[in-house]
Amino acid sequence: QVQLVESGGGLVQAGGSLRLSCATSGFTLSNYAIGWYHQAPGKEREGVSCISHSDGRIYYPDSVSGRFTISSDLAKGTVYLQMNSLKPEDSGVYYCAADCWGTTEYWGQGTQVTVST
Q: pLDDT class for 83, splitting at 50, 70, 90?
């Protein structure tokens, strides 16, 4: 059974940092890409990072480039998202999913991030 479970969200002041974790099971992580997605209140979900384990490529949109870093520990089956210099607009629910396009059926339940001013 494929599972993705996010953790690490919370409340942080603007300028602070959080590290999110996506624990995976039920599939071979090295054969998949894992994406992190952000959904702000009242807005559509958008991709904020993705790591392709098949070719090692990593993607970031301009909005988080230089502030967010994705990494993975294949032995632990876990993908991380280090978020630095957080802004209030980074608040929302963060999801991990088993692709870089948001079309997969395999999603985690999400973890809430709140950045206060």
A: very high
